[in-house]
Design brief:
seven-stranded mixed beta sheet; zinc ion binding; alpha+beta; 216 residues; 2 domains; OB fold (Dihydrolipoamide Acetyltransferase, E2P); 3 helices; two-stranded antiparallel ribbon
Length: 216
């Protein structure tokens, strides 16, 4: 597994709330750059995420597998799935799980009389079966503090790339093999979530070279 990048779920430049997302079919210079041929391309990578708070319509394809999600600000909005490509296990769209949508945009649905996120490319979606608060806590403990030992808190910046890491998730950084061994039982409770989050962080957010899905 490649080393996760150093960013944060709290960084709203890369992880915007629903209200901060660009609107579909509009040129938002904060998110897109118009090319000489008139095509709009992202100027960075962003990902919306929210915890599913209602899944009563999630298994109904005719209604877009609609789920209601709570974003990082606490506001609740809909995500609807009308796939044209990709694959996603819709059974995972359950209350308490957290949905990540790369390149998400707000779309107005006249029948709902409101804006929602419309997903067409399913490979831009990742579902982690854990609530939002636990993911925020895990990211803060392991991804936001990679300059400090996950066991004793000592600064590991001087070790550079030589700092010992958890071999599974690569997110937990230590000042010594002894600290890594001592912390193994506690970290074991978070390692699986770190592996899931590493797939969210494992790309360059501040530039756009090509569309990056969660799955091929």
């Amino acid at each position: 597994m490649a080393l996760p990048t150093h960013t944060s779920l709290q960084n709203r430049l890369y992880f915007p709330s629903f209200a901060e997302l660009p609107q579909a079919d509009e040129l938002d210079n904060n998110y897109f750059t118009e090319q000489p041929n008139g095509m709009l391309l992202p100027n960075r990578t962003w990902t919306f995420f929210g915890e599913i708070v209602s899944d009563s319509l999630s298994q109904l394809s005719v209604l877009g597998h609609r789920v209601e999600v709570r974003d990082v600000t606490g506001s609740v909005h809909s995500i609807l799935f009308f796939p044209t490509s990709g694959h996603l296990d819709m059974a995972g769209l359950r209350t308490g799980a957290t949905v990540f949508v790369r390149y998400a945009m707000r779309c107005f649905f006249s029948d709902l009389a409101t804006e929602a996120i419309k997903v067409e490319e399913l490979n831009f979606v990742k579902v982690i079966p854990m609530n939002l608060d636990m993911l925020l806590y895990t990211a803060a403990q392991y991804f936001d503090r990679q300059s400090h030992c996950a066991a004793c808190g000592a600064c590991v910046s001087g070790l550079g790339g030589g700092a010992p890491r958890c071999e599974s998730c690569q997110a937990a950084v230590y000042c010594s093999p002894a600290c890594r061994e001592a912390n193994a039982p506690l970290h074991g409770s978070f390692c699986g979530l770190c592996c899931e989050l590493a797939q969210v962080f494992n790309l360059s957010f501040d530039s756009f070279i090509e569309w990056v899905p969660f799955r091929q």
